[in-house]
TrEMBL record:
Encoding gene per record: Rgl1
Domain Ras-associating: start-end pairs: 642-728
UniProtKB keywords: Guanine-nucleotide releasing factor
Protein name, entry field: RGL1 protein
Region (Disordered): 525-634
GO cellular component: plasma membrane
GO BP term (any one): Ras protein signal transduction
Domain N-terminal Ras-GEF: 62-193
Molecular function GO terms recorded: guanyl-nucleotide exchange factor activity
Low complexity composition bias: residue spans: 534-546, 593-621
Amino acid sequence: FSFSWQTTFQDGGEEVEDGAVYNVTLKKVQIQQAANKGARWLGGEGDQLPPEHTVRQYETSKIRAIKAGTLEKLVENLLTAFGDADFSYISIFLATYRAFASPRAVLELLLDRFGNLETSSHGEVANLNSLESEMVLRAEIASVLRAWLDQCSEDFREPPDYMCLLKLLDYLKNNMPNSDMESRVQNLLKQFQNQEVEAVDGFCSTSSSGLVDGEELEISNPEEFSSFQDHVVAEQLTYMDVMLFRRVVPYHCLGSIWSQRDKKENKNLAPTIRATITQFNAVTKCVISTILGTRELKIQQRAKIIEKWINIAHECRILKNFSSLRAIISALQSNSIYRLKTTWMFVSKDVLLLYEELSEIFSDHDNYLTSRELLMKEATSKFANLDSSEKENQKKSQKRLQLQKTKGVMQGTVPYLGTFLTDLIMLDTALQDYVEGGLINFEKRRREFEVIAQIKLLQSSCNSYCLIPDQKFIQWFRRQRHLTEEESYKLSREAEAAADTNILSPKSQKSMVKRISTLFLGTDVFTPPKEQSPKSSPVGGSSGESTDSASVSSCEFNHSETEDVCVTPVSSPEDPLKKSSVGSDKGYDSDKGSISSDKGSSSKGSISDPGSGSDSGSIPSRDPVPGSAPRMLPVYNRQSEGSCIIRVSMDGLQDSVYKSILITNQDRIPDVTQRALLKHNLEPDAVEDYELVQVISEDKELVFPRDANVFYGMNSHVNFDFVLRKKA
């Protein structure tokens, strides 16, 4: 006999139970069966029977995926998910439950309510006899606990008491004595007890923060920096990035977790993310200090250092390290560096072309489609997939790649974490936590898990790296004294004063400094001051709720705060070989959600305003959960299906920091005002004291009446940027 299968899926609607709603998908499998023996006698070719002699059988099964439910139902579903053919449920729940519950609450429900072999009312085993019930329930509990320990053992790190781990150990001793699970939990408890509680600096053991004293810091010696080979620098930066990225706890990236970092009680929230950001900033600061830190450098020498950093960025690209690659590119596009027109003219043509190609990786076109596709393409590939339009650069890339392949060492991929953080922030802003009846919206968690799964995949790929730390370079890297905003700007002016006739000093601009906790892909957007830019070559970076709408660099800092970072205009230096291409007003591009302007620029070079960056880009579309209908999420700068996302800043209070707010066609001024006050950590009862204003242009604004409908009253042809202003 021969068999063939054909599977089709059909939407089976919803099933509602007490405390839960399920999406139902009908899986229909068509089985074709034929007796091959004698097929030719029956007129078939070879062993294939004609259609009229094929027997078709149909088999239909039901797949239930929980859509929303109470915490009790979601925990109970951990035990029934396999029976419902929802095979990914346990992983999704464990990766996202911290957004709506604590480990203790979940563990108590799992063990006390559903894990009690005497009193459990778990429906799946209700009709089995007592012994079978006990065996089935024990196997289900063990399966969930095993997955929990495998995937999220950090959930049990609760020094000094370790209450959850002790509760779990007590349960295992009573219900599964002498099991492998019991031994495993005991070992984990000992491991946690023997380890010191890791603070933020513990996660950043290879970065510069907290590892040097002020008196030991020094301005980079150009000769010492030049002594390090380009590939060595790239390898060491990759080594540090890999160590930190592998330690990232995925649930720290969730929008509902990361967006709470501004609160005083959460200053130590998400330390693994903060450590990664600190390293990113340290790289950008190092680039700035090596270029500007030594006053005695001649223009040609400074150009050589820029060339060296571009070559290091290229080596990072070969190593598939997109984090340090982006940090270097962002630093080279900082205010203090890109204004050095004369210096850039001494950078060789080949290196400039290489720089443009590397910058293009982070183009904001189509919601950073290039960098997203490249990241996913190389996530599991052994080596980088390099392609260059310039022959010399192509030869160089292939030569380095061939050397890597000759060594036979596979490579992982280090992503720019900001891309994932923005996606998760946008999801958190666009989707509700609870649905009708107060049920937890688990569809939202499924969408979030699609992003978390990509992070986990890349973390796994990082195990392929085989890099050895070079203590000489690491010590040099740690010793670097990072320039403040004022210092870097002053040194840049000293190097090339004439280039700045139309650029305001930092003191007269809006502050470029923003705490990392409110900048790096939170629910905020930081709009940098508009500055002259000789040439537009958008390179994204970390911004607020936008999808990588601004570049992050470490060029302008408040040195008193180690987690400060600045956003710089997204532009690149003028290519002296392409001066004729500089110039026109680009205006607003509704497809990209970006705005360009040459106001205040004598060179008519357009600049791309990161503050109005690519928020219009929606969350990347992914396969929907079986049985659920895909829908367009609300996005910035576009009204869709009666909702959209606006950005609201406080007039006179951090006026360069935006908070993203979801509004619908039902929202009126008091509702939006109250939400904006809450987002800015202000008293929500003071609604009557504020007025909401939409910024139309530099000299025009739209003031809303007291009870206006914001969705219908707003101007949808300009940026969705609003200001909350105290009434006179």
